[in-house]
Amino acid sequence: MPDTMDYTELTSRQLPQSLEAEQAVLGSILIDSRCVGDVVGILKPEDFYLRQNREIYETVYRMFSYSLPIDVVTVLGKLKENGFYDEATTPGYMRQLMEITPTAANVKHYAGIVRDKALLRALSKTATDINEMAIREEGTASSILDSAERKVFGLRRGNADDELERIGTIMVKLFGHLNELSQSDSDIPGAPTGLRDLDRKINGLNKSDLIIIAARPGMGKTTIALNILANVAKATRKTVAFFSLEMSREQLAARLLSCESAVDNNKLTTGRLDQEDWEKIAIASSALSQTDIRVSDNPTISVTEMNALCRRLDNLGLIVVDYLQLMTRADKDSRSAENRVNVVAEISRALKIMAKDLNVPVICLSQLSRASEGRTDKRPLLSDLRESGAIEQDADQVIMLYRDDYYNPNTAEQNVCECIVAKNRHGEPGTVKVQWRPQFFSFSNLDTIHS
After folding, report:
1. Is residue 402 classed as helix, strand or coil in its secondary structure?
2. Would the pTM of this model clear 0.70, i.e. be above it?
3. Of 138, 246, 279, 338, which residue is the catalytic one?
4. How confident is the model at residue 386 (pLDDT cuts 50, 70, 90)?
5. How many Å is the Cα radius of gyration of the chain?
6. Is the domain of 321 the same as that of 435?
7. Using one digit for the tens of pLDDT, what is the confidence trace for 328-365?
8. Are residues 156 and 222 in the same domain?
9. CATH value at residue 379
10. Run of H or E residues at 202
């Protein structure tokens, strides 16, 4: 009998909600439309529990996105157009909303209550979904855990990645993004790489993009990635993460210090530093220490583990992975039995999903095959990407590095690196040239002097 009572109590529970707060938000909007801008930054239509409230707010939400006047008359008109109008109840309910709301001054507080209740409902649904996945054993324990983390992280960011989103909601987000771009002093939408011509070609490093930097060994993949990482950290003041599967933390720090201080890396390696060198590295070390650069040198880390670590970072701005072909799957025990091409394809896809989940650019370095070595023109092609055509498919941009002096010592273009943008979802493919400074492990803008 107690079990029956417990079950009855459980099934009779209502989901978290506050109809009073929902009505107060709508009443505030109808009393004073100036508060709509504050509310749309907090609430989405699906945050409202009562269907009638959700339909009214959705109408207001769309009207705001198109800069239409908002008052009780115009909202009623739009409700009719959208098929949300009932002659017997809608006008009276709208009057009631205005009558029970004493003032619009507390609208942010009301909206916060509605948002909290919506988050609790979403958390309840997510917990149920995770429980079902575990009971049904839908995949390995590692994959279920990764899916569970993604779902909970999606709630924290306010994303419902398992739902269809209305185009009106997307339009409001797009208008907000366009407004940010129009007010920005920068002429590129993404984070700056520090290489002027490359930024213009790829429009900077854009959120949720997977950028592949590929080259043969010795071309400077790790160096250009570290240069970009440091520049993003300094320019945006955001947290940046570098995952190195090949080099130690100390080696990476030494390269960053050489680049930042313009002290020859050989001096840092041997420790033969004069007084001027010590002064330079002291200043550079201080500057780097003020950035939020995080480094991991775990050689066996998987994309799943990277994703989990990065979810815990606040204000994340960029992730760099060095490099793709050294990476393993999350379920490492099964990798030996898998075709390596399939494994790389799976990792490539996981990197793109991570970029989208975390809403940050992800740079992944990749080796090129030896195919270019046998050609007369040794400039790399997209087909040279090693082990998987899926890399090309998943990447938003593919940048391949080529230095002519590596193959032709007598070339006129000494210490010049070509950044061949072979795939570019934000513009046209093409080639830009940058200066290669091997003694400092750095790339810089190529200054052309005209007579």
Report:
1. strand
2. no
3. 246
4. low
5. 27
6. yes
7. 765 554 444 456 677 778 888 888 888 888 889 999 99
8. no
9. 3.40.50.300
10. helix 196-202
Q: What's 15's DSSP letter?
A: P
Q: Which of 400, 418, 396, 353 is nearest to 204 (CA)?
A: 396
Burial class (CB in 10 A: 0-12, 13-18, 19+), 214: buried
Decide if 367 contacts 213 (C-beta within 8 A): no
pLDDT at 415 over 80: yes
Point out which residues pair with 191 in neighbouring strands.
205
Has residue 1 got a pLDDT over 50? no
**Whether 387 and 273 share a structural domain:** yes
Residues 345 and 430 in one domain: yes
Based on the domain organization, do 169 and 194 belong to the same domain? no
In a domain, 181, yes or no: no
CATH number, domain at 65? 1.10.860.10
pLDDT, tens digit, 9 for 90 and up, residues 44-60: 888 899 999 999 998 88
Here the contacts of 268-274 (C-beta below 8 Å, separation 24 or greater) are none
Mean pLDDT computed over every residue of the chain: 81
The domain boundary residue, chosen from 113, 142, 173:
173
Residues spanned by the domain of 103: 14-173
DSSP letters along 314-335, please?
A: TTEEEEEEE-GGG-B-SSGGGG
User: What mean pLDDT comes out for the span 307-332?
Assistant: 79
CA distance to 141, 211, 246, 248, 346, per residue, from 330 (Å): 10, 22, 18, 22, 10
Q: Is 190 helix (H, G, I), strand (E, B) or coil?
A: coil
Q: How many domains, the chain? A: 2
Give the pLDDT confidence score for residue 159 in this predicted structure: 55
CB distance 418 to 433 below 8 Å: yes
Which of 115, 144, 173 is the last residue before a domain boundary? 173
> Is residue 246 annotated as part of the catalytic site, yes or no?
yes
